[in-house]
Amino acid sequence: MTLTWLDWLLMFVYFGFVLGVGFALKRKTTTSAAFFQAGRAIPAWVCGLAFISANLGAQEIIGMGASGAKYGISTSHFYWVGAIPAMVFLGVFMMPFYYGSRARSVPEYLRLRFDEKTRAFNAISFALMTTFSSGISMYAMAKLLQILHIFDRAFASLGLGPDYIFHVCIISSALVVLVYVLLGGLSSAIYNEVLQFFLIVSGFMPLVYLGIRDAGGWSGISRTVPEPLTHLWQGFGSAATSPMGVDAFGVAMGLGFVLSFGYWCTDFLVVQRAMAADSMAAARRTPLIAAFPKMLFPFLVVMPGLIALSVRPIDTPPAMVAQVAGDMRATVPVGVIPYKVREGTSEIVRDENGKPQLDYDLTVPTLLLRYFPTGMLGLGLTALLASFMSGMAGNVTAFNTVWTYDIYQAYLRPKASDAHYLWMGRMATVFGIAASVLTAYVAAQFNNIMDVLQLVFAFVNAPLLGTFLLGMFWKRATGHGAFAGLLTGTMAAALHHGLTLPLGAAAGVKGGWLGAIHIYPSEMAQNFWTAIDAFTVCFVVTIAASLMTKPRDDRELVGLVYSLTERPRDEQLPWYSRPAILGVIVLAATALLNLLFI
Amino acid sequence: MGLDVRVPVGVMFATMGVLLVTYGLFGDQSIYGRSLGININLVWGLVILTFAVTILGLAKLSRRG
């Protein structure tokens, strides 16, 4: 497959519109509140779609498709267990404190509730993490587009080698995001996230439709792939039989509670979207509105993994067939998922038993090339690009806000003018993106994007949940307690990771760098239990240290702690706008989906 | 309140829809083997065009109201 003028035209239409949104908002972005908080004037549905789109980066589309092919429909646990309950909790219980306090960011909430050092710890680790994530995202996109070879001809006609595809992808996507965030700040990012949300859906819906049709429907897929892949909970009775190497308790506790609440309820990247809403009611509705499409996303992003296993390629390069003839294709279905090829050669990567390895990260893009003719291919690639950019812009806007408000204004230059902070926000956008580009080049040595990200979440986010839960729901929690909890929780995560190793991995970045005293059946199991461990340590230490230190006056905590804050009233709202009712509906629907695929 | 985001979304999808429909109608008809014989450019172009018209209509309604 190669691209035609039509595909290029569709891509440039998209670039034109995202940049256009930035230019349209330029005149309105004259204060720091407009730049960092979108003036707190965005309607709930826009915030809701931006909320989900900011999270829907490269690692999600590519990683979920890859996991769908590896673990099957159980990958939906990342949505139905690992996202929806936490999103509902955020909207119903936690948004009142984020939106109702005077905080402009999540770290700033920590300063109001606890103290300066807790905020500093969170702000610095968060700033590093966002830069890291957006670098990973950029790397993933560039690598992928290079491996697909669809740009080869265009680059060759310009006299450039395939290496340039990687550089041009990174620089051009970074530049587009840079320009629209510089111009319109958070509003620009949010409006473009809505645009990107619709694009992603419109690019992947026809793909799933054609794929399922080709596979002979769900029954066709069930006939082709190994049976456990089509069931959500089969084998989850024990870690030994579970496809992910984690039992149901580990999934519920590790993914469903610690990792998911730790991410959705405390990560400023997503919470920032809800904080930009035009009212308290809208802010609370934001994650709930987001939960509805999120609940259906497995059909868009996990299903391609199963489709890819069930269908046949149109044409496989003959060289490749010869290399693996009789090897594997006969025993395990590999569908259209290509084999992993050593970089720069056509040699297939094999494990120590000589078994050829599949390149799962290519699952989704391969399907795009398999089913889309020119035209739709342009739209599909644009959807992929849109997901990369929405993820990157989410990170960049969260980074520039935390840097400017929680690091620069807090510690470096406290009493400058608003215009100065607006200028600093724009500077932070520039160096945040520059740092991400640098990370993208460093990230080139890591392989599975999902696993690395999960690991980072486990270290930084898992203890955080303990801090926020105690901060919001236990007025006795103190700043010293919170800080001690965060510090020991993060150390516990590192220690746990250093002392354990997933089955078959070598000591190092995968863990066991202090000597492995426990072996987990999979990397995912190790990540979940690292998170559970960090959370528990943080929770216990925060309570213990709080009880030993001086509590704060109740009057100072009004609006920051559940028991001292008036409940937001929503009786005047119609039923479909009340957070609690929306929450119950989305939870019930999610439970139903679980039953459907049990 | 700033920009109504439905306008750029609607106009962008209208543009893309028109491009896909036009190509689906007048472009090379031999390329649809891979999409199971379905003229996916025409079909999906019409779908997103309908979406674009709907969302632009909603934007117009709320401006008037």
Model description:
The complex is a heterodimer of chains A (598) and B (65). Chain A has helices at 5-26, 32-37, 44-55, 58-71, 77-80, 84-100, 106-113, 116-147, 152-157, 163-215, 217-224, 248-264, 268-275, 280-301, 303-310, 318-324, 363-371, 376-412, 418-443, 449-473, 479-499, 523-548, 579-596; strands at 500-502, 518-520. By secondary structure, chain A is mainly α. In chain A, helix 3 (44-55) packs across helix 10 (163-215), helix 6 (84-100) runs parallel beside helix 12 (248-264) and helix 10 packs across helix 19. Chain A starts with a helix and ends with a helix. With 65 residues, chain B is mainly α. Chain B has one domain (6-64). Chain B is built from two helices and no strands. The A-B interface holds A 6, 9-10, 13-14, 17, 20-21, 24-25, 28, 39, 41, 43, 46, 187, 191, 194-195, 198, 202, 206, 210, 213-214, 278, 314, 370-376, 379 and B 1-3, 5, 8-9, 11-13, 15-16, 19-20, 23-24, 27, 31-36, 38, 40-41, 43-45, 47-48, 51.
The chain-level structural class of chain A is: mainly alpha
What are the secondary-structure elements of chain A, in order, as H or E? HHHHHHHHHHHHHHHHHHHHHEEHH
Termini gap of chain B: 15 Å
Q: Label the structural class of chain B.
A: mainly alpha
Chain pair sharing the greatest interface: A-B, 35 and 31 residues
Gyration radius of chain B, in Å? 15 Å
Number of helical segments with 4 or more residues of chain B: 2
CA distance, first residue to last residue of chain A = 38 Å
* Helical percentage of chain B: over 70%
How many structural domains in the coordinates of chain A?
Answer: 2
The tally of helices of chain A reads: 23
Low-pLDDT runs of 5+ residues of chain A are none
Radius of gyration of chain A: 24 Å
Question: Which residue ranges of chain B are poorly predicted, with pLDDT under 50 across at least 5 consecutive positions?
Answer: none
What is the 3D shape of chain A? globular
Number of E-type strands of chain B: 0
